Amino acid sequence: MEQRDSGAPFQDVMDDHRGLLERLAAIEAESEPERIHEEIRLLIPVLEMHFEREERPGGMFTRVETQDPRQSGEIRALRDEHVALIDTAVSLIERAALTSQQRLPSHDLVSDVHKFTTHLRRHEARENALLTDAHYHEEGGGD
Ligand SMILES: [Fe+2]
Ligand SMILES: [Fe+2]
């Protein structure tokens, strides 16, 4: 699905989403607490930048909401999820450190990491749906 026209209104966010999906696959491939710790530690600043890009004035949330005010409830829910996702990532780092230091079994940690990546993947899929919709609106109905 190549879509390289420079006029694509939310190309930056779409590109972020592609990059994030690759990171999530890398995180899901890990089972060592030390590796999980490192991957999520690297993920957090990437997520913070990405969420800021979506939330900033004139960014995708405000543009989509301006185009289609019916989406305001969904956008509010997505904003709230940003806070929850960062909180979860921070707590997973702490648990990964503890699991590693105390040499605890990592099964529960790995399972919760997968719940987190599933949540994040669903979050981004909902946004992609919103953006596809918005793109059609901007195109004037998507013939
Ligand atoms: Fe988001
Ligand atoms: Fe996103």
Structural description of this entry:
Helix 1 (11-28) packs antiparallel against helix 2, helix 1 (11-28) packs antiparallel against helix 5 and helix 2 (33-55) runs antiparallel to helix 4. This protein has one domain. It has helices spanning 11-28, 33-55, 60-67, 72-101, 107-139. The two termini are 19 Å apart. It has 143 residues and is mainly α. The structure holds fe (ii) ion (2 copies). The site of one fe (ii) ion (FE2) has 6 residues, from helix 2, helix 4 and helix 5. One fe (ii) ion binds next to helix 2 and helix 5. Pfam families: Hemerythrin (PF01814). InterPro entries: Hemerythrin-like.
Number of strands: 0
Q: Overall mean pLDDT score?
A: 90
Helix-strand makeup class: mainly alpha
Distance between the termini: 19 Å
Bound molecules: fe (ii) ion
User: What would the principal axes of the Cα set say about the shape?
Assistant: elongated
Give the helix level as a range of percent.
Answer: over 70%
Taken as a percent bin, the fraction of beta residues is: under 5%
Total count of domains: 1
Q: Biggest sheet: strands, sense, closure?
A: none
What is this entry, summarized?
This protein is an all-alpha fold. The chain contains five helices and no strands. The relative contact order is 0.16.
